[in-house]
Amino acid sequence: MAERPIFLPLSTLPFVEEKTVTFKWHAGLSRAQAQRSIAELHASAAATGHEPLLEISSKGSEKLGIDLSAFNLKFKAPDGRVLSVESAYQGSKVFKNGDHFPDLYSAASRDAKLDERVKGRSDIASFDFFGTPWPDQPMTAFYDWLFLQALAQHPELLEGISAYAGFTDIAFNPQKSAACQARCAAMALGMQAAGVWPLASQQDYLEAIQPQQNKSKQQSLF
Q: How far apart are CA 91 and CA 88, in angstroms?
């Protein structure tokens, strides 16, 4: 047995509800095994009243979920280039020793993620997206923003996810990482229901995702 979170849209802060579901795990690295595990996860979630769910990853079986993978979801950057969410995220990392590798913007998604200069490093100090600084806290704010910005450029994908009650990412393990593409999809629908997305600016976004009492603390990071 295994546990994985499912992500449900929420029309109030934090715009996502996370629930842990226990399900039968099918061991193995193949896509077929992953899809068996996804089916078990979704069946267990359905038994508690949460359906339909969409797997958002390259391991899924539905084209919409595959297209929404951070590896595949692309958007137009400020300089006019078309980037994947994954490449944009990796190329924006700024490490504590000053390392920053914006050349990864031009790399393929998998190459950017596996680049030895960034792979496995946890010493992230902040992010720099085409000259715009982003704090490293809240922890997933920048990654979530990239996904939301990309999704806003694809209204057909946003319309597609609106048919689902929630989202999963079979590869996401909250014990090992924080940012999750399935969480972002739920967040988009939650913020939309709350009437606070799409957002026009970085400041609007950061203020929307934080409680009132934390605004002054966040703004001091710039």
A: 5
* Residues 40 and 64: beta-carbon distance below 8 Å: no
Q: What is the largest CA-CA distance in the chain?
A: 49
Q: Rounded to two decimals, what is the model's pTM?
A: 0.91
Q: Which residues pair with 133 in a beta bridge?
A: 128
For the chain, the residue count is: 222
Euclidean distance between CA atoms 64 and 136, whole angstroms: 30
Which residues make Cβ contacts (< 8 Å) with residue 206, sequence separation at least 6?
A: 141, 218
Closest CA to 181 of 59, 21, 42, 45: 59
Q: What distance lies between CA 198 and its chain's CA centroid?
A: 16
Q: Output the pLDDT for position 197.
A: 85
Q: Tell me the mean pLDDT per 10 residues along the chain, length 222.
A: 96 96 94 96 98 96 97 96 98 98 97 96 96 92 96 96 98 91 97 88 90 46 38
Q: Does residue 170 contact residue 38 with C-beta atoms inside 8 Å?
A: yes
Confirm if 41 and 19 have CB atoms less than 8 A apart. Answer: no
